[in-house]
Amino acid sequence: MTTPSEPILNEATATKVTREMTLENLFINIKSVSRVQPHEKLSLVDTMFLVIDQRSLKWIQRWFTGDSRKTVMAFIRGMSMRIEEFMEGDLLAYEEKAKLIRLLPMMQVGLDNLKQSYVEDRIVIFTLENIIDALERILDGWGKRMIVR
């Protein structure tokens, strides 16, 4: 049984998990982030999937499982880096890159909604804004390439 002193996932683990994330898991997580509504929070399940946290007594359960905004932010930051890796590398076919590009604007909306959940935490807000900007750079660069092709 996990206790509060033994978090299920920490920032270092979140970064490692996202570095090894498969394309299928990345698609699942992007879709999950894109469905976040204002004032909702995300939680990690099985150390690899983000879900909208709908548990009762969230703050107690988040404390008990070691689920924190730092861990979720590290996971989302890692997702954004993984997206960049997939887009810049030769790991994906054109069709898979095109699918990723189509999903990114929806992810940006979800991240923007997530900012409303953390209005009191400027660091989280700035982190989310940096991630949104990174996704925008990917869209700007790859959107043009996709149209040319």
Q: Could you give the topology of this structure?
A:
Blueprint: H1 11-19, H2 23-34, E1 42-45, E2 49-52, H3 58-65, H4 69-88, H5 94-115, H6 122-148
Antiparallel strand pairs: 1-2
Describe the protein's architecture and organization:
The protein has helices at residues 11-19, 23-34, 58-65, 69-88, 94-115, 122-148, and strands at 42-45, 49-52. With 149 residues, it is mainly α. The protein has one domain (11-148). It has a two-stranded antiparallel sheet with strand order 1-2. It is globular.
Characterize the main sheet. 2 strands, antiparallel
- Tell me the structural class: mainly alpha
Q: Total number of β-strand segments?
A: 2
Q: Helical residue percent?
A: 55-70%
Strand order of the largest sheet: 1-2
Distance between the termini: 53 Å
In the predicted model, the low-confidence regions spanning at least 5 consecutive residues are 1-8
What coarse outline follows from CA principal-axis ratios?
globular
What quaternary form is this? single chain
Rg calc:
16 Å
